[in-house]
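Lecture notes, structural biology module. Today: joint structure prediction for complexes of two components.
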Amino acid sequence: MARTPAWKRYNWRIIWLSLLYCAFLLPAVYGFKHHLIVGPMAWIVATLPALPIIGIFAAMGRYLVEEQDEYVRMLMVRQMLWAMGFTLSVATIWGFLDNFGLVGHVDGYWIVVLWYFGQSIGAIVNKATLGASRC
Amino acid sequence: MENRLRVLRAERSWSQQDLAERLEVSRQSVNAIETGKYDPSLPLAFRIAELFDLPIEEIFVSPSRRSSGAI
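The predicted structure, tokenised, for the full assembly:
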């Protein structure tokens, strides 16, 4: 794996955003579990954990802009395209199955987990077709 | 795209890492270009040509010329 300067910056951003995610999520779970948060504050506290996740998407975009190694950038773009295709496909199939009452309803944030899984598929495809993967 | 990068590198006794550092790209990129798995952009192709002090067409084989049997 090529550890370019842009990749290192991306990793640091992901680490900080993950820590921020935990810092927002844990108090929110505790607060809601013990009925400490009500009214408009509940909306804010419930939304806060989503912000670092959105930040991770922004970090991915920033990485693509900052990456100077065009081949490494292409690997990442291919991975992201696989992740997007996989995520949208699974979400669409699940949506119809859910509509017809064949499967249970799933919380929307699982789409992010699917996205990351899709990136792994992209990395495997890169490895299989180009002999290289981004991560 | 077929190219003479490996030969040119070997003539100078450079490793893939040496060439990568001179081009300011990853060793992975050099390997992908050498093996024809990745076609470099025009700016990178020019950087490679300038590094070896050769015209681009003496490093990279034009796919159209190759298919027509001109080379």
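Point to remember: Residues 68 and 120 of chain A are 23 Å apart (CA to CA).
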